[in-house]
Amino acid sequence: MAGMSDRAGLGLAEDELLPPADWGRRGRSAPGTRAVLLFGVLAAGLVLGRIWVAPSIDARALDAWATVFVAVCVQALPFLVFGVALSAAITAFVPASVWRRVLPRRPAAAVPVAGAMGAVLPGCECASVPVAGGLMARGVVPAAALTFLLAAPAINPVVLVATAVAFPGRPEMVAGRFAASLLVAVLAGWAWLLLGKGDWIRVPSRPHAHGTAGRLEAFRQAMRHDIMHAGGFLVVGAVGAATINAVVPSGWVSAVAGNPWASVLLLALLTVLMSICSEADAFVAASLSQFSTTARLTFLVVGPMVDLKLIALQAGFFGRRFAVRFVPMTFCMAVGVSALVGGLLS
User: Fold this and answer.
1) Predicted confidence (pLDDT) per residue in 194-235, tens digit
2) Number of alpha carbons in the 13 Å side-chain half-sphere of residue 76
């Protein structure tokens, strides 16, 4: 430590303090050789799996897994690209002063305003994560950005219209979804403002660009980084959702539909595991006619805020320390508020 301090005192650059790039790499295989070896191991694993594992797998279960996996990715990918593009545009072209003018200076007042902003921008939960990251990168207080993250996929016009179409003649479902989702988003933002700590969340950083060429380059870099980063976590979440959908027997679902509290908790867990895009979940909820209004409302409120792919995206963007605290808090709030609102509607 003393030697490093002496070097820093001499004004040496950080790169000069680091060992050379080839430090300690003698005897290792070249990058091309490692890639060939990795490909060989993967090919051998696929061959062995085809011989030993494939005969024991039910073809129908495998087809169901593949269908759910592709459906989740296909549903989410366009909105993810939209969200990444919007986030990159916010980062590169919208000055930080704009957000200071739109949002109140007091963080407690900025939270409900950010929740109301979620009713303007269409998009699903996949799109809201990179947009919230872009807002934080532009200086928006994390509590307000997280409120937008929760509200946008649940109360935007596309989702509300889809809910009205899925539940014809039942405007109370649209009103209940809007009220419960907005209330959960604001409460979660206030809770993070009061209890959250700075080292619990990794705020995304973006380079500051000047001039048209610099802003276009910043947009390109942000777009490339986020689409590769978020896309990988989307695939991880889709794999988990497809596995759960293929493994959980359908008989378990209908067995507890008659119990009010058990049905609420079941649909809350089911929507987390199914990871349906918020633009499509209303039609799934409408098909669960054996469940109560409260249980189906819980399905609609919890899903856009907590599901497998969203958990993976949040962990990837904001860090695992954030996800292990924010996700359980949001889930409990969403279940409690939706049960309360659903009880008022029944």
Assistant:
1) 998 888 998 876 555 555 667 787 778 767 766 776 676 667
2) 34
